[in-house]
Amino acid sequence: MKKIISFLLFACLLNAGPRLAHSTFDSKQGAFLTYDKLEHFSGSFVLCSGICRLGVSNKKAAVTAFTLGFAWEVKDAFMPREKYGPIGAEGFCWRDLTADAVGVFASYLVNKYVLN
Which of 11, 44, 64, 71 is the most buried (most CB within 10 A)? Predict the structure, then answer.
């Protein structure tokens, strides 16, 4: 089972990188489940799991990963893409934050009940 979970973590990490270059990041338009949301989910999942694997407690890893996701959304709110280019965004998006939270929660559950 640990090999399957490790493979899924690796697959999520592989998915996030290439998709970043091709995504339109249309967070405020369209359906809830876009590739952008998958990137937020998988990024938060991998980040939380990675922090936990460094020896940090599962709860602290989850809080840290969610806090970083929240901070990124706050950054998006104050840095428009027109002015800051690729590091900017279209603004704060609760859908992105929800995808981050679901990714962190899924990682928390996997780390608590499957890997330990």
Answer: 44
- Cα maximum dimension of the chain: 47
Token reading at 8: 């899924």
53, 112 Cβ separation under 8 angstroms? no
CB 16 within 8 A of CB 43: yes
pLDDT (tens digit, 9 = 90+) per residue, 34-73? 677 888 898 999 999 988 888 899 999 999 999 999 998 9
Residues forming beta bridges with residue 89, ordered by sequence position: 80
Query: Which three-class secondary structure state does DSSP give residue 79?
Result: coil
Residue 55 DSSP class: T
Task: For residues 88 and 111, give the distance between their C-alpha atoms in angstroms, rounded to a whole number.
Answer: 33
Taking only Cα atoms into account, the Rg of the chain, rounded to an integer number of angstroms, comes to: 15
Query: How far is Cα 73 from Cα 37, in angstroms, rounded to an integer?
Result: 13
Burial (CB count within 10 angstroms: exposed 0-12, middle 13-18, buried 19+), residue 30: exposed
2 exposed, middle or buried (CB, 10 Å; 0-12, 13-18, 19+)?
A: exposed
